[in-house]
Automatic annotation (TrEMBL):
InterPro entries: NA-bd_OB-fold, RMI2. This is RecQ-mediated genome instability protein 2. The lineage of its organism: Eukaryota, Metazoa, Spiralia, Lophotrochozoa, Platyhelminthes.
Amino acid sequence: MFYPGMDTSSGPLMRKLLIGQLFQDPTNLPKYDSVRQLWEHSLPNRPPLLWGIVWLQGTVTEYFDEHSVVLDDGTGRIRIDCLKGAKNNPISTPEVGEYIAVIGDLVCPTEQSAGQVSEWYIAAKLLVTLSERQSSEESSTQLADLNVALFELSWPLEVMDMIHAL
């Protein structure tokens, strides 16, 4: 929502995105305004998407290391670092199989390796588990499965709705 006199020259602080959108142009590097790092994603026949930090949702598919996991939203995969984004308060590392929401900074590798998607990661500022861990050994209720399916199916629609509302 925009208000009279609102400065719209800077991008929004946070944007809901799909992982696949982050890497449509892996050579795209951030710009800097007077306050923060800004990312820009070009869209055909539309104004570009601008953001400072991202909001992603998806399923944790594996551990990357002690403080990092791999998130998959069906459009791509990215490493989530639970230590680097949280200044003095490390975030608990989620379990494999959990459906999570994460808000954080998109961290670009060095310019030399910017084209290597595997080098990029999210430095988590906030991480919320939206579902319980699903495991083949546990019998989960149909309601829990329905909630996970609802999150997974509605997330891409929420992202597209925000993009087309520009």
